[in-house]
Each structure stands twice: as structure tokens, then as C-alpha cells.
Hints:
29% helix, 19 strands, globular, four-stranded antiparallel beta sheet, alpha/beta
Amino acid sequence: MIREAKTENGWVRGIEAADPRITVFKGIPFAAPPIGENRWRAPQPAADWEGIRDASRFAPISMQSTPGLGTDVYCKEWHVDPEIPMDEDCLYLNVWTSAKSVDEKQPVLVWYFGGGLQWGYPSEMEFDGERLAKRGVVVVTVNYRINCFGFLAHKELTKEAPEAPTNFGNLDQQAGLRWVVRNIASFGGDPEQITIAGQSAGAGSVLTQMTCPDNFGLFQRAVIMSGMIRSPYAEEGMGIPPSLDEAEKLGEKFFNYLGVKTLAEARQLDAKYIRDCYDKFMYENEIMVTSRDNNICIGDPIRLFAQGEYAGVPVLAGNTEDEFPFMIDAQNEEELEKKASAWFCKKAEEFLAIPQVHEQTKDGYAPVSGMELMTKAAFLLNEKSVKPANCYYYRFAPDIPGEDHPGTFHSVDLWFFFETLAKCWRPFVGRHYDLARQMCNYWANFIKYGDPNGTDDDGKVLPKWNPYQENDRAEMVFTAQGAKSGNEKNSKLMEFLLSDRIERMKKAVCSDDCYIAEQAVFFWHKPLDKI
């Protein structure tokens, strides 16, 4: 086993995982502490150290609201420790490896956590890389700055560093990836077989990284879990990055909220004070997220991917069945028809002729999964680009036990892909563990080969998973009875909206104009406390 490894900055000593055939290295610095003058600055090189650095404990999490104090599903699910160490000095990563020597060249997974770019950390218990490492994958989980520490923009910052004025969290992710390319061979990994992956805002981060030309060639595959979030009833929505100018204005407003006038003054403030102010500020204003800085984010990543303007690598993407249902917010049929006419124009009559449109819930009409819709639309458009790559679609739809009867809520599939169900409080039983084993095997195969197909642990061939294409609408559905492959059977509503979304995206031009909402229909989606 590799228990000690040499990095570019010095030696590290890891610790055996629960399975002693796996070594985990925790808290390896990949950049200098982003404190003092490095606050709101692109990540700087890490310092060298003497001797062998102990890598047996996770490093502090990024500055954020204290985990475990809320009553939402995520505080019970995995944000369970209010005492978890937190610090502005947070640019560290973790490595799990089963390699016995540096010559093994195992494929590598680089994981970006989710949390709306406001919360989250790689030491969340569902992100344990041991089960993937057991399958011959070197797993790397990268921490990065979030919320106002990671995504503040301000005119002073732009003047100071026009080449990297904001999006420090994304730059941290990029720095972590580049560290992996330079160092992972020392852990038995192959720097030429890297998959970047993430869920929710982590998946949005994958989209940002894979559409940044500076990253082309640094990785060979990508996994986007619950990351393409858009409404079929409006052009605006989650994941569309604001302009740098908009982000700068928000930053100026935040400086006023902090009671400072200059960047120098803001850099002298206590990190906890900044965090606490932002916790209040974010509920009264827009949150700080990735903006179009023309550096690491050059446009709307989903549009760029759909147009083929990305790294050109195989993609595995999908969603859970119950997350983010979008619908038309109408109180009656008259209002429904008015809003349908405003949005669909000449096609409104065709839309209103679909019986499912008139099925009214307590929240509106015509509910549909915006996540599934957008992912499939992007896949079909990408297929027609100059250099398309295979794209594999999945839907997560098993039963999820618990007294809260949660359905397949946003993020619950993480327990399954990482095969970490045993850490969860929910009363999972045998069929859930069987499904998790299958899902982890599919994922490991994709990381290794760019193709999820292969065999299960018992040697049986896993159900065939074909790429999602116009002539073969193949999808993998993860059910209570296990993985089931087949061709989609869209409702008339889904098929209509899929066609409409593709048509709208074809017409879009990658300029600032495409970020201005078209004639918007008021829409509703099921809110979540935290992403």
C-alpha cells in the first residue's frame, strides 16, 4: 500500500481507511491559504514543507453558515456536526487510493461538492471515496471557497486583477485539478485518465470547468449530476451566470453592508464577521455565484456545452425523479391560457391541447422535470455539434425510506453513487444496497473507460446503457428493483416541451443578448432550503 507519497511541496503520510487495503490522505494543501492579501485573489502556490506532513485528518471547511443547526432535510442527512472545524484557510484536498505502487496508473476521479456555491465541504460523510477506490479508482475531493469568499466581484478587484477578477471558488477548483495533473502519479493515479464530477452546484462547476478553454486536455471525462437546472416556461433560471458588471454592483452593495469603502479595508475584516454579515445579506439580496468574467466563465455553460463549445469529452448526466418540478403558476384555466399564449405564442394552442397541461396541482399547472428536460435537450443539441461525444443519461427513481417520506429528493442519490448508505440514518434494506452497488459500478466503469457498461460484482453483465441520441433515446433508470435500461417513453407534455426547448436553444446566440429573459412566464419550482 502507498502510505507515504511525495508531492511537489513535500512528503505526506496518509492513513489506512476502514478497509486497510485503501489509503486516504486528508488535508493536502494545493494552494496557499487565501487569507490577508490573498483574500479575494486567485489561488497562489502552496508553500513547501520539511519532513513528512501528517495527512490523517480533514482540513477545516470553507467559511459558511454553521452546519447542523437547521431543521431542513440536509442538516439531518449529512450536515450533522456544528463543531466541524471551519477556517478561511481552506484550500486542501483529499485522496483515496488502493494503489500498491506509483506505477499502477489508476484512473482518477476529481470531485466538486455541491451546496448552491454557498455551503458544502468535501468531508461530508456521503463523499467517502473508499468504495470507488476499492474498484481501482483514485478519488480526489477538492475544497474550494464559496459564497462571498469565493464569488465576490467588485470594481477594485477587477482593476487589481483583470485576468482573474472574481470566481475564486472556480479558480480553486481549477487549481485543484491542475494539482492532480501534476501530482497524482505519486498516489498511483494516471494524470491522463481524469474524470471531473460534481452534483448540483458541483455539477454546475463541472460545466464551468469543461467549457473553459484553458482546461481542455486536463481531463478526459465529465459527470454532471443534477446540474442542468432550467425551467421550460422561462428563459431565466438557476445556473445562468450574471454579467461581471452585475456581480460588481452586488459586491459594492455588500461592501456598504459591511461598512467598508475600500478593498483594503474589507481585507482587514475578520472572516467570521464577513460570514455573519453575508448570512443576513444573502436573504435580502441576490446570492454571489459564478459570473461571466471572460476568464474561467466565458458564457452560459449549458448553452456552450449544447453547442459543442466544450472539452469534447464523454459525459454522464442525469437527475433524481422528484427534484425541481417546474410548472406554470396559474390559479385557474383562464390564467393558464393567458400565460401559455404569452410564452408559446403560435404554439400555445398545441400546448393547451395536451391533457396533462390541465392537471392542476396546489402549485400550478403542467408540472414537469426541468432537470430531465434540460439535460436531454442539451444532449440532443450536442449530438449535432461539430465534434460530439457520447452522452449517457440516467434518472434516479427508487423508493427512499424514512418517516419524512421524502421521495427522491435533490442530492439523495449521492449515498448510492458513492455506495455510502451504511453511513445514513435511513432504514435502507437489501435492495437499496444492491442498487448502490450497481450504480457505483456503472460510475467506476465510466471513470475508467468513458463507458459505464461492464459487469456487476457477481460477474453478471450489467443492464446495457447506451448513449442518449436522437435515434436511440436510451436512458438508465435506477429503480427499487435495480438498474433498468430502455428507451424513454415521454409523455406528450415532455415531448412538446423538449422540442420547444431545443428550438429555443437553437435560436439563441452566445452574446449578452441571450442572457436577457425572453417574454417571461411566471413559473414555480419546489424550493429547497439548500442545494
